[in-house]
């Protein structure tokens, strides 16, 4: 009931559409009643065969009635369904917006494909429920009500039989609906799993092919797909069962009415035309009632899907603005880690890390793979919050400033080059939405990307496809660097930013980055130590702790891990 109300609350902004449609459905219901009612006088006229004048007007009247009913029905359908669609569009937007607010931790816990299916398939199923509630229920209720009116008017004794039958049919319908809801939720979960395989397949297609895993993945897909069918089959079974069960129960009602009514006609207590009118109303009334009961199944399915949607909307973002968060403004770039500890799961990834970085300084992070370098810098952008200790930017604890203003101060070139299915120019523009073409070009020049971009068929307007698949690794990296350059933020984070470049372009890009680093605070992560010898401070991270810290010369002289790593790379 709670979720049901919640779904309906999304319809509120579209109340006038629904109101208009409800009025139209009132008319449709009224006309249904009128048709059943008219059976009696019409039959009377036919049997008495006297009033030819009124009788010849009848066909015209029937057509007119159906035209009016058609117009009302269209109005009802159109406005109800658009209202449902609009409200569900709002749900989908809210879901997307909320996803954006959730922290990185959430995304590592949920496979991308299943998240996608919540936004698409679950919301669609939810919409079917809203659509049929608002479009069908009003109309069918009014139709049923007016027909029941006729039934009572004609013969209240017979009407009582109908009244006994209706609640009896509702009982199995409700049982079936409950089952359908549970199955729907399960089925949507399977749909999510299917989506997840799809997403992985298409984004990892190169590896799948290279390792000859097509067969295996196809089997996996087919297995999951069969699982989906197995669930849907149950839902279909219950759905298909509900009408026969209801009709079976209804048949008792109809039989009783015909028996009792037929007896009355034979005994002359009721006229034949009255009886026909009654039967017409009764047969007509079961159609909307069956539809209402079937709607119940659709609604239950939609409730099942809505649980999956609301689960995400109700997920509280781990990383959010504090109530008293302030706008940090343009910072100088003083960064301090105060005994920061962090872990993703059980094992500490960072243990009691303290360091300071001043404006204009370059801090290099080196150390073995898995040592915690990427983790350390991702705390600056608040992708995660430290478990203990704090991080300060210009003296502000970053948990006390707004995320937006904090992230506005940081430009990141990530270890993974993330590009979007858009033009090159727009991909660079992610660094500064609304930047002029000249600015984009300037940034690309500084990142040594301009030349290769110009050689592409449509230059800056070339679409680079999903995840930039049409570019080489080094080219992608340079676009990401251009994006960071364009952002012009006081804090710069370069996580293996030049690792995919050849020595020559690396030196050029390095030169560009060196220009960029002036007056900024830069964190550089590099495995190739030759690129960081000029750093003001080198921090060697090993097993989550700071193993060594100092300048290149000092660390070499220390003869610790750094000098060992350095020695190995130089011998190469
Ligand atoms: N999202 C995550 N959830 C759980 N554990 C994680 C996550 N990201 C990283 N880790 C773990 O944290 C540790 C540090 O990872 P991190 O990415 O910081 O290493 P790194 O120093 O950047 O390594 P590399 O040089 O290979 O990039 C690793 O043991 C890794 O398995
Ligand atoms: Mg890393």
List key phrases describing it.
572 residues; alpha/beta; ABC transporter transmembrane region fold; Rossmann fold; 3 domains; elongated; binds adenosine-5'-triphosphate
Briefly characterize the structure:
Helices cover 65% and strands 10% of the residues. The chain contains 18 helices and 10 strands. The protein has a 6-stranded mixed β-sheet, sandwiched between helices. Strands 2-1-4-5 form a 4-stranded antiparallel β-sheet, with helices on one face.
Describe the secondary-structure layout.
Blueprint: H1 2-9, H2 15-48, H3 52-101, H4 104-109, H5 112-154, H6 156-203, H7 205-210, H8 214-266, H9 272-313, E1 335-343, E2 348-357, E3 362-366, H10 373-380, E4 388-393, E5 396-397, H11 403-407, E6 410-413, H12 424-429, H13 437-446, H14 450-455, H15 473-487, E7 491-495, H16 503-517, E8 521-525, E9 537-542, E10 545-550, H17 552-558, H18 561-571
Parallel strand pairs: 3-8, 3-9, 6-7, 7-8
Antiparallel strand pairs: 1-2, 1-4, 4-5, 9-10
Helix pairs in contact: 2-3, 2-5, 2-9, 3-5, 3-9, 5-6, 5-9, 6-8, 6-9, 8-9, 13-15, 17-18
Bound molecules: adenosine-5'-triphosphate and magnesium ion (MG).
């Amino acid at each position: 009931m709670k979720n049901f109300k919640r779904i309906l609350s999304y319809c509120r902004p579209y109340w006038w559409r629904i109101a208009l449609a409800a009025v139209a459905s009132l008319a449709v219901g009224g006309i249904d009643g009128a048709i059943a009612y008219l059976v009696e006088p019409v039959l009377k006229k036919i049997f008495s065969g006297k009033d030819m004048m009124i009788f010849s007007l009848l066909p015209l009247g029937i057509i007119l009635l159906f035209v009016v009913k058609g117009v009302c029905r269209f109005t009802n359908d159109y406005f109800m369904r658009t209202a449902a669609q609009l409200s569900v569009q709002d749900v989908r937007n809210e879901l997307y917006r909320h996803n954006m607010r959730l922290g990185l931790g959430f995304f590592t816990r949920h496979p991308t494909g299943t998240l996608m299916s919540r936004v698409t398939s679950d919301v669609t199923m939810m919409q079917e429920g809203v659509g049929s509630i608002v479009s069908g229920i009003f109309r069918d209720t009014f139709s049923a009500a007016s027909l029941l009116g006729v039934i009572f008017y004609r013969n209240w004794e017979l009407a009582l039989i109908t009244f006994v039958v209706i609640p009896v049919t509702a009982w199995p319908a409700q049982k079936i609906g409950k089952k359908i809801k549970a199955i729907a939720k399960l089925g949507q979960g399977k749909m999510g799993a299917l989506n997840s395989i799809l997403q992985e397949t298409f984004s990892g297609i190169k590896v799948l092919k290279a390792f000859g895993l097509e067969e295996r993945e196809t089997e996996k897909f087919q297995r999951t797909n069969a699982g989906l069918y197995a669930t849907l089959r149950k839902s279909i079974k219950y759905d298909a069962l509900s009408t026969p069960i209801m009709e079976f129960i209804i048949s008792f009602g109809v039989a009783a009415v015909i028996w009792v009514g037929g007896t009355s006609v034979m005994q002359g207590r009721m006229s034949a035309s009255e009886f026909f009118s009654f039967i017409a109303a009764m047969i007509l009334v079961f159609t909307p009632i069956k539809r209402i009961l079937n709607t119940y199944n659709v609604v239950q399915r939609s409730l099942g899907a809505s649980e999956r949607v609301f689960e995400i909307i109700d997920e509280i973002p781990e990383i959010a603005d504090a109530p008293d968060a302030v706008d940090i403004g343009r910072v100088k770039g003083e960064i301090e880690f105060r005994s920061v500890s962090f872990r993703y799961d059980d094992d500490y990834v960072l243990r009691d890390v303290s360091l300071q970085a001043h404006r204009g300084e370059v801090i290099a992070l080196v150390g073995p793979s898995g040592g915690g370098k990427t983790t350390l810098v991702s705390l600056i952008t608040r992708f995660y919050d430290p478990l203990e200790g704090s991080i300060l930017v210009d003296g502000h604890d970053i948990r006390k400033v707004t995320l937006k203003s904090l992230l506005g101060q940081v430009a990141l070139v990530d270890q993974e080059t993330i590009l979007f299915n858009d033009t090159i120019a727009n991909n660079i523009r992610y660094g500064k939405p609304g930047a002029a073409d000249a600015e984009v070009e300037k940034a690309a020049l500084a990142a040594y990307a301009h030349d290769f971009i110009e050689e592409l068929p449509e230059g800056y307007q070339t679409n680079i496809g999903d995840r930039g698949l049409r570019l080489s690794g080094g080219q992608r990296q340079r676009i990401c660097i251009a994006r960071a350059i364009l952002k012009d933020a006081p804090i710069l984070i370069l996580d293996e930013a030049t690792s995919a470049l050849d020595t020559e372009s690396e030196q050029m890009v390095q030169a560009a980055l060196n220009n960029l680093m002036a007056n900024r605070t830069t964190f550089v992560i590099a495995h190739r130590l030759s690129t960081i010898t000029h750093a003001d401070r080198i921090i060697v991270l090993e097993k989550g702790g700071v193993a060594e810290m100092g300048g290149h010369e000092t660390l070499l002289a220390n003869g610790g891990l750094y000098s060992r790593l350095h020695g190995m790379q130089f011998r190469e």
